[in-house]
Design brief:
Elements: E1 4-8, E2 17-22, E3 25-31, E4 37-41, E5 55-57, E6 60-62, E7 69-71, E8 88-94, E9 97-105
Protein name: Non-heme iron oxygenase ferredoxin subunit
InterPro entries: Rieske_2Fe-2S, Rieske_2Fe-2S_sf
Domain Rieske: 4-100
Length: 109
């Protein structure tokens, strides 16, 4: 599978998460304060809550329900109650298109 158009770059608001679904995979797309676009799995691993309804601060996305924050770069939870990471996807910007391949997760260190 190749990358699919997730949304327009112009649809994104800085420091807010935008929920998209590609091939049945829910993804939270975030334009951070540095202008970098991130794509992580949209479901909190603690409670199956949509992360795109959460709060963006710096390079983290916090679940609104229980407060677990996830790194936008690695998907790792930064605090409890979540302890499992969410997937992180490669993002390609082509003009105003944000492209994501939900079948390929980003390797994180």
């Amino acid at each position: 599978m190749s990358a699919s158009r997730a949304c327009a770059l112009s649809d994104l608001t800085q420091d807010e998460a935008h929920r998209v679904e590609i091939d049945g995979v829910a993804i939270a797309v975030v334009l951070d304060g540095n202008g970098e676009v991130h794509a992580i799995g949209d479901l909190c691993t603690h409670g199956d809550i949509s992360l795109s309804d959460g709060f963006v601060e710096g390079e983290t996305l916090e679940c609104w329900a229980h407060g677990s924050a996830f790194s936008l770069k690695t998907g790792r939870p930064l605090n409890l109650p979540a302890y499992e990471p969410v997937p992180v996807y490669e993002v390609v910007i082509d003009g105003d298109d944000v492209l994501i391949d939900p079948s390929v997760t980003k390797a994180t260190a």
